[in-house]
Design goal:
This protein is an all-alpha fold. It is built from 3 helices and no strands. It starts with 6 loop residues before the first helix and ends in a 12-residue tail after the last helix.
């Protein structure tokens, strides 16, 4: 897996994932489990949807000449 999620995107995904999980616990609702998706993609720095769409928020590494 090639990383396709950059640092700002990772931070946002983790925060949103935790917020959704927290809401699910507070509301005693299983829909809070949806928060595991952004949380996991934030931790592993890979988003399957980004791969399908050809998107990457990782900065490109420049080759040295």
């Amino acid at each position: 897996m090639i990383k396709n999620v950059g640092t700002p995107d990772r931070i946002l995904r983790v925060l949103v994932g935790l917020a959704i999980i927290g809401w699910g616990i507070y509301a005693q609702n299983w829909l809070g489990a949806i928060g595991l998706i952004p949380l996991a993609t934030g931790f592993i720095s890979f988003c399957p949807l980004y791969k399908v769409l050809g998107i990457s928020t990782c900065p490109l590494k420049r080759e040295k000449n």
